[in-house]
Structures are given as structure tokens and as C-alpha cells.
Amino acid sequence: MPRILVFQHVAAEPLGTLDPLIRRRGHRIRFVNFEREPDAQPNVDRYRGLIVLGGPMNVEDRHARAHLLTELRAIERMLELGRPVLGICLGAQLLAHVLGAPVRRIARPEIGWYPLRSTEAGLGDPVLAPLGAGAPVFQWHGRHFEIPSSAVHLARTDSCEQQAFRYGDNAYGFQFHLEMDAPLIERWLGTPAYRDELASAGLPHDAEAIRALTAQHIAPMQTRAEAVFNTFLDLVGRPDRRFVLPSREFG
């Protein structure tokens, strides 16, 4: 039974719909919640895959949040072992940083629903292909990664060019949140810090507009997300595809 390691940063950003999907497939999940265990030092060699979730912190916070250095080294180790890695939002930014790409603030945060457009490579990508040429996805971020030079650019939005990439054939970074369901979106909209972030973002839409679009888009996104995540999870347990990464220091 393949075991998957999950890095969580705050209680408000769980696996979402990925959790029951992973369990239905028979995988065992080991959570490391760095909000509760900031000094945790998980041995990633014991796991067949790694999922790194989102959070309100950023890559540049690594000097004040030592767990981010732990995560960067863990991601690097999993890539060296050739095992599948999925980074979501902050997790994608950490993956990009490991691969040598910068993470920057975007001109205006993306919060709510945005049309995602696949690149030509994204249309043919085995994991991302279920999204088709384009589909509305849920977003909540004020920074973005650059596409690593060693990676393949898979998706964009009009307001943020860098939305998804693949490194090798089993490491993926998604800036968007396919793992959401309606209760989790409502939870974020009701969380004071997240609510304040939305209010100060200067966006043309508010929480009520996001709720209305959620009612319209959540079911189709969940259907596509299940196909995307199932294909990614197919990679778990496959023979390792090892990579030799350049030596990097994350301090």
C-alpha cells in the first residue's frame, strides 16, 4: 500500500477533495502539519509521493520559518529519488524555488474564479489534459512562480501567465486550487485573515460574487479535478525516475 506524505501549513488549507480520493485508492496518508509541528523533520525516503499544500506564508519567509527550509530540502530529496511531487499554490512556489526559479509578487492578487487556459504542452500533458483547452478554476494567491528553465509550462490565465508546470514526468506545480469544494471555499471566505485579504486586494468582485460563481463552477471543476488527481496518483508506486539536481543551498 503506497504511502503519501502531505505537508500542511494551516488548518484552513487541507487536502480538500484530494483526501477522500487518496483514501479510496488505498493509499496511506501521513500528514505533517507545520503549524502544529514547526520543528518536524520527516524522513521523506519512506514515502512514495509528496503533496505540498498552500498557506499564507511565502518562500521568502524561510529565514523566519525554518520549516520552509525543511520543506525545500524534502522536495529536493523526493526529486532526487524520482518520486512524484505535487505542489499546490505555496507548494508549487516551493517546488519552483527548488528548481531555481524566482517567486514574485503579482500586480494584483487572484482571488476567486478565473478562466485557466492550457498551453499546447498542457493540452497533451497526461495529468493536466482533463482540464481541456480552458476551464474556470479557483484561485487565492498574491505571488507567483516563474516557470523553471528545466520545466514545461502547462497553463496560464490572463492575469498570471505562470499557472502550472511539470518537471520531468512526475513533478507538478499548480498555482490554482483544484482541491476545493463549496464548504472549503466558504470557510476561506469566512476566515478573518482571508476575508481581510480579499477586501484589501482591490478586485472588481467581492465575496458574494465569488459565492455566485462557486455555485456555477464548483461541480464541473470537481469532475475535472478528480480526473487530474487520479492521473497524478497513478504515478505513485511507479518505478522511481531519478534526477541529478544541481547542488543548492536554501538558507
Q: What does this entry look like structurally?
A:
There is one protein chain. This protein is of the alpha/beta class. Helices cover 33% and strands 25% of the residues. The chain has seven helices and nine strands. The chain has helices at residues 18-24, 66-81, 90-98, 120-123, 182-190, 192-200, 207-234; strands at residues 3-8, 28-33, 49-52, 85-88, 103-118, 134-145, 151-156, 164-167, 171-174. Strand 7 and strand 8 form a beta hairpin. The mean pLDDT is 95.
Secondary-structure element series: EHEEHEHEHEEEEHHH
Largest sheet: 9 strands, mixed
Q: What general outline do the C-alpha atoms trace?
A: globular
Structure summary, number of beta strands: 9
SSE-based structural type: alpha/beta
Oligomer: single chain
Largest sheet: spatial strand order: 2-1-3-4-9-8-7-5-6
Residue runs with pLDDT of under 50 for 5 or more positions: none
Straight-line N-to-C gap: 35 Å
Number of helical elements? 7
Name the average pLDDT: 95
Strand content: 15-25%
Radius of gyration: 17 Å
Salient structural properties:
single chain; alpha/beta; about 35% helix; about 250 residues; nine-stranded mixed beta sheet
Explain the layout of strands and helices:
Elements: E1 3-8, H1 18-24, E2 28-33, E3 49-52, H2 66-81, E4 85-88, H3 90-98, E5 103-118, H4 120-123, E6 134-145, E7 151-156, E8 164-167, E9 171-174, H5 182-190, H6 192-200, H7 207-234
Helix pairs in contact: 2-3, 5-7
